[in-house]
Amino acid sequence: MSRVNTLKIIAETLNQSNDLREVLQSVLEKLLEITGLSTGWIFLIDEEPIYSFVADVNLPPALSWGDKQPMCKGSCWCLEKIWDGRLQKAVNIINCKRIEDAIEHDWGDTQAITHHATVPLIAGGEKFGVLNIAAPHKNEFTEDELDLLQSVAFQIGTAIKRTRLYEAQQQRAEQYTKLDEISRMIWKMNDLHLLPEYAVEKISHVFELNSLAFLIKEENVLALRSISHNGTAQNVHKRYRVDEYSAPEEILQCSSFREDVGQYGLSLDDSFIIPLSIGEEWIGCLIGNHSSSPWNSIHPDVIKALGDHLSLVVENARLYERGRELALIEERNRLARDLHDSVNQKLFSISLTARGLKEHVKRLPDNDVLIESLDEMQSLSQEVVGEMRAMIWQLRPVGLEEGVVVSLKKYGESLGLKISEQIEGVGNLPRLVEETMWRVGQEALNNVHKHARTDSASISLRRMSDRVQLSIKDEGRGFVTYSNGTPEWSFGLSSMKERTEIMGGSLVIDSQADVGTTIMVIFPNRLFKK
């Protein structure tokens, strides 16, 4: 058969399918049929030493035992030559290392095959693999045979490149389908507290990721909010200081971050990162590991689209949360006004009325029971007025703009406590940290008022070399904090601890019976902007 007809038949065979292994098997069978040679096989290569055995015809028993193990393990001369660049064209008379190993280890009949011609599969400067052709007792191939094999190899290389381009397009289309699926899942998620866990769970499942972490930038810290590993997502509360102009990739160099995520199965040595940004400002990132679906093969456009879409979802959730906060603040202000203008005034009127009635009743005979009842009514109304003022403060912490200590002092005084304060070396604090200190301090002062059996407390706010510390101290009755090594904490104390730890701080409670209680809220300086 003429060379032209041979190449025509090979080209037709290569165009029959887009399944690469199927195509390579068919073309190898057709090539051996046309040339009258008996045996052949094809390796496809990746980065050294990765290769795959993808097609074969009439392998001798020595090379086909154990599901063709001799062809699937170890390297050989033809692979080494194409990896290091020495194999550029069809080569004649190559001793086969795999056959030599088979003879040495007595793996079986080689069917008199000792040598093979080997041809690189190259197209467009890319190396895809090698084609090996052999026949019993054939130790040399003619120049015409090598030229034909070279032309066929070029056709095969071109077909491999075309097929891989097609597969890449198909893969990209599938990835955009997955992206659309994820978009529909998370677009309506407007709860910023639930979004991280939900997002890592869905993205990990759809893209078959081994691990995925979700981090959100909050002022000058980067908060690790959720991690998914092997299909299980969970919320995490860890915070890491970042400079205002830091890139998200810099978090990979943070030793404490590497240690934390390592506990959840996320390896940063083999990870990808997707920045989340709005305009020029980055607002967080995703960091993860791939599993069965190599992340590096996902098209950069899909990665960028995923980051852009998730950024919009995060920003939308933030705007929704801010809207809810503003609505809540407005509602609190309205309730505070109503309580002050209506309920508080009526309670005050009840107190005045009780006092006036008491003066009138004093002139009546047998008035002891009435006077006692009016005294109790006046006392209760005054007590409720005090509690009402405290409720108004809880609804609307006026004075927080003057600093957390001033605000807490005013709040404590509204409860009837005598407050002493001390401030040392404190500058501006992040809004979220200051609000946390305010809420924890508020609960601590409530406890002093209700349980400590004392009417005084001290507040101190200190900035030291390594931390900022807020302390609320009283010399009241105290309480037992541990029993048999187990914390004896009320719901209120547990809430204070959780609120503090979510923001990256710690809560310390020191209390002794008949000595008093000290509650300390501590935030490390690394969370604050220098």
Descriptive account of the structure:
- It contains 13 helices and 17 strands.
- By secondary structure, the chain is of the alpha+beta class.
- The protein has 4 domains: 166 residues, Beta-Lactamase, CATH 3.30.450.40; 112 residues, GAF domain (Beta-Lactamase), CATH 3.30.450.40; 75 residues; 128 residues, Histidine kinase-like ATPase, C-terminal domain (Heat Shock Protein 90).
- The strands form 4 sheets. Strands 2-1-5-4-3 form a 5-stranded antiparallel sheet. It has a 5-stranded antiparallel sheet with strand order 8-7-6-10-9, sandwiched between helices. Strands 11-12-13-17-16 form a 5-stranded mixed sheet.
- Strand 11, helix 12 and strand 12 form a beta-alpha-beta unit.
Task: Identify the notable features of this structure and list them briefly.
530 residues, alpha+beta, Beta-Lactamase, 4 domains, five-stranded antiparallel β-sheet, 17 strands, 48% helix
Question: Secondary structure elements and their pairing?
Answer:
Blueprint: H1 3-14, H2 20-35, E1 39-45, E2 51-57, H3 61-72, H4 77-83, E3 91-95, H5 97-105, E4 115-123, E5 126-134, H6 143-186, H7 195-206, E6 209-218, E7 221-229, E8 232-241, H8 255-262, E9 272-278, E10 281-290, H9 300-361, H10 368-395, H11 404-414, E11 418-424, H12 431-451, E12 456-463, E13 467-474, E14 482-483, E15 486-487, H13 491-502, E16 506-512, E17 516-524
Parallel strand pairs: 11-12
Antiparallel strand pairs: 1-2, 1-5, 3-4, 4-5, 6-7, 6-10, 7-8, 9-10, 12-13, 13-17, 14-15, 16-17
Helix pairs in contact: 1-2, 1-6, 2-6, 3-5, 6-7, 6-9, 9-10, 11-12, 12-13
